[in-house]
Specification:
Helix 1 crosses helix 11, helix 6 packs antiparallel against helix 13 and helix 7 crosses helix 13. Helix content is 79%, strand content 0%. It is built from 15 helices and no strands. The radius of gyration is 19 Å and the shape is globular. The chain has 312 residues and is an all-alpha fold.
């Protein structure tokens, strides 16, 4: 457990640094957009391309991992939406994106740095396989459910979601890396070193950016419905992923552990962005992102310590 703590503390400390910098007004208002732009369009694509291009297709495209993680995500999303819609009388927008917050982990900004630090760079392939389930299944489904509140037909919402996926630079980096891997095209040393330097910045900048974006004075609400979603995200989601991976699918313990800690990450900021864009309850969405990120330092560390089986 001490080994896990020594790994997780620096990562969450970077998030705290970003939050403190935003709270102290040490960054301009445009800082979040600039940091996110660097991470999303430069650093993360460079890291993913470099990993995928140097790996076999089987290491990156794992249908069993994709299917298992997708099934759990769909189940968590469905029960969360049902509870919010009929138990909490939410409209479809808030129910859908509340369900998305409970079922979509922040693997993009936190996972690619934190999980390989625990399990080695081989874990990146598993994160990609499982993360694609969120991008191509959960996101369009969330938009489809939310569209029941909107004037546009559901088909347009799904099409919009799929177009968003097609424009995601992470998807293009993965596809480009797969092509290079399939044709066994060597990457020139100078370009590989450039990608390494750029990709190395992905983790620290992404974590700092999360902290900056978490500081939203006066824009967070945490009530009973939020606490249920928080518990679902931080406890139920990883527990169900462990059962699916280790018990139902019979995957090896390392793979099951990687998927479990991936599910144990806090809610992704995507839920807040969609809620804001569709005129939903941004106060609750902001609270969900903030509290799951803060509590994940404890819950993620405990789950990682139980599953990673690291020495110490």
């Amino acid at each position: 457990m001490l080994t896990v703590i020594n790994i997780t503390v620096p990562f969450f400390a970077l998030v705290l640094c970003g939050w403190l910098a935003a709270r102290a007004k040490r960054l301009p208002d445009q800082a979040v957009a600039a940091l996110n732009g660097f991470v999303l369009y430069f650093a993360l694509p460079a890291m993913l391309f470099r990993f995928v291009s140097g790996s076999s297709v089987e290491e990156v495209v794992n249908p069993v991992v994709f299917l298992g993680y997708a099934l759990v995500g769909l189940f968590v999303f469905a029960i969360s939406v049902a509870g919010l819609r009929w138990g909490n009388s939410d409209n479809w927008v808030d129910a859908s994106f509340g369900g998305l917050a409970a079922s979509w982990s922040n693997w993009g900004y936190m996972g690619f740095g934190l999980i390989p630090a625990l399990f080695g760079k081989e874990a990146i392939g598993l994160i990609i396989s499982a993360g694609l389930a969120d991008l191509v299944i959960l996101m369009p489904l969330g938009l489809l459910v939310a569209s029941r509140q909107a004037l546009s037909p559901g088909a347009n919402a799904v099409l919009s979601g799929l177009l968003g996926v097609s424009r995601n630079p992470l998807i293009w980096a993965i596809l480009a890396g797969l092509v290079v891997s399939l044709v066994r095209l060597p990457v020139p040393t100078a370009i590989d070193e450039f990608l390494r330097l750029l990709g190395t910045a992905a983790g620290p900048v992404a974590l700092f950016s999360i902290g900056v974006s978490l500081y939203r004075p006066g824009r967070a609400r945490v009530q009973t419905d939020s606490w249920i979603l928080i518990a679902t995200k931080l406890v139920m989601h990883p527990l169900l992923v462990w059962i699916m991976a280790a018990q139902v699918l019979g995957l090896d313990l390392t793979t099951a552990a990687v998927l479990t800690v991936m599910a144990a990450l806090p809610a992704a900021g995507t839920a807040f962005l969609f809620t804001e864009r569709h005129g939903g309850d941004v106060d609750r969405a902001a609270g969900l992102i903030m509290i799951t990120t803060a509590l994940a330092f404890v819950t993620f560390t405990l789950i990682a310590g139980l599953t990673a089986r690291l020495p110490g």
